[in-house]
């Protein structure tokens, strides 16, 4: 990309006091395989430029995918015009680097990934499909396997002296299977992320997807009761990813977080430690600086059950009278807000099998439905979601369960976490499985 | 170019060249989807205008199909060189050769389903900002327990052009406006929320259909009702659902399983059941993008095929699925104009448009009066379904107990769980007051505007998951 500084100048000429550019340049390669054939192949390079300006104390934003000079200039002009509409706010500012501000270099761009040929990637997807077919007699169909490799480059540039960029890349692979037994069907899927091509483990992905489908097929509702609930690591990741977004200064300031006003307090059992670590290169969200150009750092959010602090971007930090924790996040289409980058829950020392063995009357939840569509109210903490999984009696699996809901309030659930497994995996967040002492299960 | 009613974005002779380049390696079919979308969004938070954003998504994607394989490449450009490069990249996935391919593009007009009165550009932004702030004030004035109000207005003008190797050339401009109001009410440590969403394929006249003040008040009302509501009961019960957005239950629990891609894969519970009874005879279900100005309406789909009304289920009997090009080829069926995509970044897949349970013959008041005991679901938030099993869960945003045919106390935190196929058999009364609500439907990583609708209806037996038991014990 050509030098974009002329756009900062253009913003000033249009009447902006300060300006900031965020450029995303990304490349994706993706293939999906079905019944031994390549079903979909996608290769694309795409770009987006976001502009933020301050005119007086008012913020205006705009974006475009049209990176011709006329497209970029138009975006700058729209941003300046929009600043005339938003409410003035003297707390608005862009990041000003200090003399000693430095960005760490992270191993998040594997040069070898680019060398992997399309043929090799397609072969991996075909191999996964073949493996999945033969894994278990109850697998009726392999609905699809796929491989994606991606890379992107972020550039942040502002009139306060930020001019920085980094590149990141990675690969994902996934499998989607269908099991059938006694006329009922059950899907199973798994996908994983790896920085390096050699770290993708196709057999593990297939095993997990197949296990998921065949162990849940033929599930039935149980009687309504209170039970111990183990959230399997993938479900755990969904829960923590949602909770992570409420652990920001902005949500707390606006009273939209169950954690508001609780810094320094015990919010979870001793077993719960939650860290956002953008410097952990094995996670998909690792980066040297955030989307406003603020250097990243390792940030403990909940330590041994105690809430340590909230995540901030420049604006919400200023509002709270603190400095940005380097958590600004955006896409080029969206406004900036604080959000975790590489959130993970610290794994425990027990295996999942040990956790199950120590469960008297419980439910290993492997799928939830409704979490992101209102089933988990992050403002009130109320959670009520559909669930499928395996029932456990006296430490043994006794059969699959489906068509039940589990309900509870997060505040209480977090205090009642009584086991954390060691089966850590990165997906939306890095998580192990964990158990909550008691939740309401509604079934028959 | 943007803003012209149903114009085309790229010159026909350029599109012909691009299609020829895409067909060069022996493809069966090639298609160019061009897009120039302008977005204006405003939002308030805490009584202030916070985010005022303008966006432009401009680019094109080229699809090349040979046999079962399709290859896709997109570029952030509508210039000839970039389009030709995308065509060559997409074509490289196909091996073979052919001589020069010449396509004679025949311009077809997309039907004008949704005329627009107030284009986003025709109303000054300060005026729009004032409408948002008025919404905020109305919500707060409703009750002092309202603590937070967030109002957003999104206006989208999506200009698209589809051209393909079969000679199709269609341009369409669709203007959609979406208005949402989130409220948070709090008292004694209890926090509850209210949510209003209005959206149509219209311009700013949306806020003449529902005034900003009405929307603000309605959102606040919901939050306050929930604040004072008791925890919902659990167990199997009869549920009466109000007309409108509640149709999301059919959309999620049955609609997705009626999309032909899942049928072709055999992963749907409805596969192989055409002509069979799949629901109670009071149930007729329709997908129809030709409802004037409805949220999921269009003249042509994103593959250039005319949108059409389809009866999916007629008096309980399964009649048809929803088809895009790929699934229709595979199933040897006519395309039904259901090929949709989020943007030029994506390939089209079969999607719902405005999907609903059609009007029945009962009366809404009589359905309620005829129900002795149960739950009245006045609003649903959203839901999720497992397409293999048809199992679903829905979150009820506003609910009341029904006692002796009358509405009783408000209850909160209820979810509905069940199975799509099973619930079709459990619907035993359908009223005649069909209405729609707007949603963003997610599938395969792509979002598309889809309206969900239904008349007031009754489900004889469904599992309600509530928290009453737990809360009682906790006290």
Characterization of the model:
The complex is a heterodimer of chains A (444) and B (475). Chain A has 444 residues and is of the alpha+beta class. Chain A folds into 2 domains: 5-214, PmbA/TldD superfamily (PmbA/TldD fold), CATH 3.30.2290; 219-444, no CATH class. Chain A has 9 helices and 20 strands. Chain A has a 6-stranded antiparallel beta sheet. Chain A has a 5-stranded mixed beta barrel with strand order 7-14-15-16-20. A 4-stranded antiparallel beta sheet of chain A has the order 10-9-8-13, covered by helices on one side. In chain A, strand 2 (37-55) and strand 3 form a beta hairpin. In chain A, helix 1 packs across helix 2 (69-83). Chain A is globular. The N and C termini of chain A lie far apart (60 Å). Chain B has 475 residues and is of the alpha+beta class. Chain B has 2 domains: 12-228, PmbA/TldD superfamily (PmbA/TldD fold, 2-Layer Sandwich); 231-474, no CATH class. Chain B contains 11 helices and 23 strands. In chain B, strands 1, 2, 3, 4, 5, 6 and 7 form a 7-stranded mixed beta sheet that branches. A 6-stranded mixed beta sheet of chain B has the order 12-11-10-15-22-21. Chain B has a 5-stranded mixed beta barrel with strand order 9-16-17-19-23. In chain B, strand 21 and strand 22 (446-454) form a beta hairpin. In chain B, helix 1 (12-23) packs parallel to helix 2 (80-91) and helix 3 packs parallel to helix 5. Chain B is globular. At the A-B interface, strand 2, strand 3, helix 2, strand 6 and strand 15 of A face strand 1, strand 2, strand 3, helix 3 and strand 7 of B. Strand 3 of chain A pairs parallel with strand 2 of chain B, so a sheet runs across the interface.
The portion of residues forming beta strands of chain A comes to 35-45%
Number of strands of chain B: 23
Shape of chain A: globular
Radius of gyration of chain B over alpha carbons? 24 Å
Structural class of chain B: alpha+beta
Q: What is the number of domains of chain A?
A: 2
